Amino acid sequence: MNTRKHTKCTFSNTVKEVQMAKQAKTLNERELQKLLDFVSKTKNPKRNRAIFLLTYLAGLRIGEVAALRVCDVQANDGAIRSQFTLNPDQTKGSDSRTVLLSQRMQSELAAYVQSIRVRNVKQPLFATQRNEGFTASSLAQVVNGIYKKAGFDDCTSHSGRRSFATRASSLGISMRVLQKLMGHKNIQTTSVYIYASDDMLRNAVELI
Taking the complete model, does pTM exceed 0.85, yes or no? Predict the structure, then answer.
């Protein structure tokens, strides 16, 4: 592998991710519930709900969601894993990363997996109407389309991940911990994802 070319490509991808994240609107809990209410009326509502929540509750990139297989989230005994590892082919950069799932996210995935027919544990976790796996691009189109139809014009496929980072920061989770949860090599990249809302600023002042 040409190391210089790979490093340049990885840097370019990181810059692009940061630029798109800056533009993505974040959603608070009330807005997220409004989105999920709309999702419940779409085609494939259980699939779409799980997709959105993996970005909001686990901070996954949309490309990582598209790359998930059933065996990544479901153990041999059928239980949903509390954490799993994405290999380099499933995530950005050249390294694997570990994703931790909250109990709420595990419950959401358990309900979703029960609703699908699993023929092979290595099949895509999320499939199109043609029963094919999504690409990062095709899944982003689906997500962005739902945002627009739900009235969230400023939201993009980066909104869930940015909302995850912003909420974690507002709850006092340290930047170093958040960096690990986001799978970033550079802590400055993590800081870009955090939106300082008026409520966060007010809460900070009240703590002083």
Answer: no
